[in-house]
Give the backbone structure.
Amino acid sequence: MTQFSGKVALITGTGGGQGRVAALHFARAGAIVVGCDVFTEGHAETQRLLRAEGLELYGAAPVDLGDPDQAQMWVENAFSEHGRIDILYNNASAAKFAPVAEMSVEDWRYTMRNELDLIFYTTKFAWNYLASSKGVVINISSTAAWGGSKVAGISAHSAAKGGVVSFTRQLAVEGAPVGIRAVSISPGFVATPGTRPFLDNPVARKALLDGVLMDRPGEPEEVVAMALFVASSAASFMTGSDIVIDGGLLAI
Ligand SMILES: NC(=O)c1ccc[n+]([C@@H]2O[C@H](COP(=O)([O-])OP(=O)(O)OC[C@H]3O[C@@H](n4cnc5c(N)ncnc54)[C@H](O)[C@@H]3O)[C@@H](O)[C@H]2O)c1
């Protein structure tokens, strides 16, 4: 009997860095993991990695969660195949970066669509199933919700991730009467296959880690460890909070 035996965990962005690690860890902890990604090959690679351990990654790719119909189909298929939804781990996102005066309207809307809208869609469509199972929503925000950046033009990204934190608070308010908990996690810079090229460049690395007390990026496992805790019964009194995991960036 493992920690999440019999629990169904929906994890978005399982083709990416943190989503892949989340899928592995939740499956190792006994959850039935249903993933999705718009990036088909990344999702397939995660599925291969789980199968190599005798585990399974359910779900589908490509799924574009910025399209409400596709988000709804993914959630409904998960429920019809597995009969319940206990954990909704909203991890997927994509953003565009530019100084505010140079940010195109299209890039602003792209960021809102792929960082904020998709969380609304999956949560909306999973809500009644989560209420039935007294489930939990975990939303991945960012330290961009809490501070600006001198390195990159993060106006759209910070607005969207700030929205993720406030959306989560309201989910906690609406969720408490029906037994749903909702928590957001705000990582600082995390090393993933996507961010590795920047970290391998000494100039970019120095700029990106400026102000990080531990002088290193986080690892996906250090974010997923918190998600595993939040999803567990040990966190049963936790809702509406945002947990910052940033190597001390916001401490100064
Ligand atoms: N990597 C970092 O430094 C960092 C820092 C703070 C917060 N975060 C947050 O952590 C989460 C995971 O990011 P990551 O570092 O693993 O990045 P990543 O780019 O490796 O993974 C994100 C995945 O989401 C998928 N995705 C994007 N839009 C989608 C859509 N519309 N439908 C379906 N899938 C979609 C992408 O294809 C990708 O595979 C994100 O919410 C990100 O904003 C990352």
Notes: The longest strand covers residues 181-187.
